[in-house]
Each structure stands twice: as C-alpha cells, then as structure tokens.
From TrEMBL:
GO terms for cellular component: cytoplasm. InterPro entries: UbiD (IPR002830), UbiD-like_C (IPR049381), UbiD-like_N (IPR049383), UbiD_Rift_dom (IPR048304). GO terms for molecular function: carboxy-lyase activity. Residues 99-296 form the 3-octaprenyl-4-hydroxybenzoate carboxy-lyase-like Rift-related domain. Pfam families: UbiD (PF01977), UbiD_C (PF20696), UbiD_N (PF20695). PANTHER family: 3-OCTAPRENYL-4-HYDROXYBENZOATE CARBOXY-LYASE-RELATED, FERULIC ACID DECARBOXYLASE 1. It comes from Mycolicibacterium sediminis. Coiled coil: none annotated. This is Menaquinone biosynthesis decarboxylase. Residues 10-85 form the 3-octaprenyl-4-hydroxybenzoate carboxy-lyase-like N-terminal domain. Residues 308-429 form the 3-octaprenyl-4-hydroxybenzoate carboxy-lyase-like C-terminal domain.
Amino acid sequence: MAFQDFREFLDELRAQGELIDVDRPVALELDVAKAMRKSASVAGPAVVFTDNGTEFPLVGGVYNSRAKALIAYESDEAGVMQRILDGLSRRIAPVVITDAPVHENVVLGDDIDLTTLPVPRYSPDDGGPYITPGIVVSRDPLTGVPDLGHYRFEIIDAHTLSFMAQPFHRFGKNMAKAVARGDKTFRAALVIGVDPMLAYTGPIQVPDDTDDFEVAGGLRGSAVELVKCRTIDLEVPAHAEFVIEFEVDFGTTVMEGPLGEYTGYYTPASMKPIARPTALTHRNGAYFQALLTGVPPTENHTLKQLAFEASFLQMMRLQFPTIERVAIPQSGGVSFYVVIAMRPRYAGEARAAILAAMGTNVRPKTVIVVDPDIDVQDSEQVEWAVSFRSQPARDVILVDGLGAGPLDPSIDESIPLDRRTGSALGIDATYPYGTVIKVAGDACGPSVAEHGLEFVEVADVPGWRDYDFPELDDR
Ligand SMILES: Cc1cc2nc3c(=O)[nH]c(=O)nc-3n(C[C@H](O)[C@H](O)[C@H](O)COP(=O)(O)O)c2cc1C
C-alpha cells in the first residue's frame, strides 16, 4: 500500500537504515549542504538535522539514492519501470477532506515570518536561502486543471519569496495565461513534505490538460486526500508537512539568484516575480525538507530520473512501439542526453524517433538511438555502438533553432527564458536497416536485425559465461 504521508516514508527509511538523526548543532548556511553531499557520495542515509537553529526539524536527502527511490516506489530494480508504467496507465481522482493535518497550525498574512523556517543555503554564491524541494500546486486559469511541479523559491525577506518558472513548464504556462487575460495577480501554493509518490509525480511528463493529482493517485494506487486552502481557491495535499499559500503580483519584480543549479553551474541573478505568502500552514511537529541540487548526481536528479524515463518511454511508444528502453542519465541533468533502444521496423524510423524525442518537453541536446542489444544505462555499451555502428556523414542529425534546454549554461543567459534557442544532435547508432548479425553462442545476446542486406559478425568468445573458472568464484 502507498505511503499515507511524508512521515510514514521517513519511518520506512529509518527502518531500513536509510535515515539517521543528527542532534548536534548544524548551520543552515552551507553545513547542511556539505553533510548532505557527503552522505550522498557514499550512498549514505537521509539526515534529520534536529538542532538547526529553528523550532522545526529539517530532513535532507530523502531522494538521494536509487535505493531510496525503490523504497519510495515500493518496488525493486527489476520491477520498478513496469510499476511506474502501470501506475501511469490508470488515473485515480483525488478526494477532498475537511479535517486536514496540514491545518493543525495556521498563520495568516502579516503574522507569517519565513525566516523562522529552516531553509539552507546550498552553494556559496547562492543569492540567499532556497526552498528547493517545494512542489507548486497551480491551476490552469482557463480550465481549472491542477498541476504539480517542483520550483525553486528564494527567501527574500520574512514576507517575500521569489521564484523561477520556465515558460515551458506548467506553472509558467498557467501564469502566462493569467497575464494574457489581464489578471493582475496569480494565486498558488508551495507544498513541502509529501508522500513520496506525490513528489515523484512532479517530474512526470504528461500533456498540459492532465490533472496531476489523478496521476499521483494512479501511481499510489489510491486517491490523494486534498484540503481546501485557507486563503485561496485551491486544494492541496491534506497530509503535507507545510503549505505556503501565496499570491504572485505581476506588477513587481525583485533580484532572484544566483543559484547553483542542477546543471552543475550557477544560474545568474536576474529580476523575477515576487510571491507574497497569504497563509503558512503546517502539521504539529512539522518536518521541513532540504533538497540538494548542484553538480550531478544529486537527489534532484534521482527524483527526476525514473519519473522522466517512464513517462518519456510511455509517450514515445505511442508512435514508436518497438522502443524497448530509454535512459535519461543523471550526468546530463536528466534532460540533455537521451538514449533510446529500439528495433527499427523500417528504414528511417530511428531518425524519426530522434526528431520526435527532440520535440518533447524533455528538450534533449543529444539523442542516441541504439539497437535493443545495447544496455542504454551502460555508457560503455552506448559508446561502443556509436563507435562501430554509425557513420557520422550518414547517421548524424543536427537541428538548430529548438527551444533551449532548461537553464543550459552554454547559451547566453542574458536572453529572456522564453527567447532562448539552441541546437540538438542526433546519432542513429542502430545497424543500418536490414543488417543480419551473426552472433556466436551467447556472446553478445540475440541478433538485432533480420532482413539481410548486409552481414556483420560479432567477435566475442562464445561460451565465456559458462566457462568453469573456480579462482573467480568469490568475486
Ligand atoms: C527539485 C527540482 C527543482 C526544480 N526547480 C524548477 C524551477 O525552479 N523552475 C522550473 O521551471 N522547473 C524546475 N524543475 C523542473 C520541473 O519541476 C519539471 O520539469 C516538471 O516536470 C515540470 O512540471 P510541470 O510542467 O507539470 O509543472 C525542478 C525539478 C526538480 C526535480
């Protein structure tokens, strides 16, 4: 059964040795981030920083490893992809309740003091403390459809936040629609500390008219419980640890940034919208959350990877049903570099898949298509395929003038977000259509193409897997 809330997930992490308490004083200014990076570097536990200078415990690193992702999905390595695909293929509508834990404490208007929250600074040149694990719940102003997505929020002062919403993400699109119809403000909520399936729903790639709470319900296998906000017309997860209801004033901006981002580079400071909190609600004994971002891999990347891969796979298979697996590796920020394994059904299909992938909201800068015998998660195998199955003059595609990848630091960052364009590289590293592969024994797995125009013989040592080699038994 799904985790009911953040605390049940923390309990499970603790039970599995994946969560520890640190009770000595730890500074929010960089030390929390250092501790989180160090723990992640040794596949270590998530950490509750109990003595962080505020009244709230701060927990960081809950998404910082594949092992923790598998606990969140209540699955294992062999089953997790299918588990997500099954979850994505059903939708379960949320239910609205009235007596919500997140309303155990309600602070309104001028009484809100954001500086009482344990919000760390992650990289030395960050413009200020940043809420990085927050999920924005916003509604399409025209259709009312709710969206969930992670967005960074900088604490400007006790009553002011600023944020960065890419124009091609739904929170950004929802605000653009409000501006276009002449609204002066936009109201939404920032949610912190949720059942992990809600967190893993944030990055899922779905069409804009999708109710993300229904997607989360499908992934959980049961309805998400929501409660009406106190100051705005919106429903938020009832079991969240914290909710900040806020209003964006389209007339005012403030300097936001820099922030050490998921690309491994700082995004420069620039003028961005102001968000003014209208309510801060939280559970008794609420856990605040920290989420490390910066040079990959971090928990930002782990949070995105399975969700992006599964939803991208599902989307691409609608048009290319012989796609078997995809990889969107952490080294490419879980966006810029995509590998697809497919069995092309006719000449040119791999190139069509490359162009389709470039057109998705993942916005990859490099797309490589390989045959299904290649393990897409193994970069050495992918490099092998690119090296020996492709001919650059024949198999490379370059497309210019595409929407730039999110926060691509190689593009002039003084250009407004909605005007940035970039180029993308595609490599068709599948055997030319119709190639017959001769494989001796089990050397390189099954043959990958059937129709027999060219002939390729794989040079590996047949039978090596079954070779009796007792000296290696305990390795
Ligand atoms: C931890 C984290 C922080 C993120 N921060 C931002 C952000 O500040 N701005 C943004 O536009 N996208 C950000 N993203 C990416 C979007 O949340 C993500 O692409 C998501 O799929 C967008 O979903 P939506 O279009 O449904 O809102 C972040 C992702 C993660 C995992």
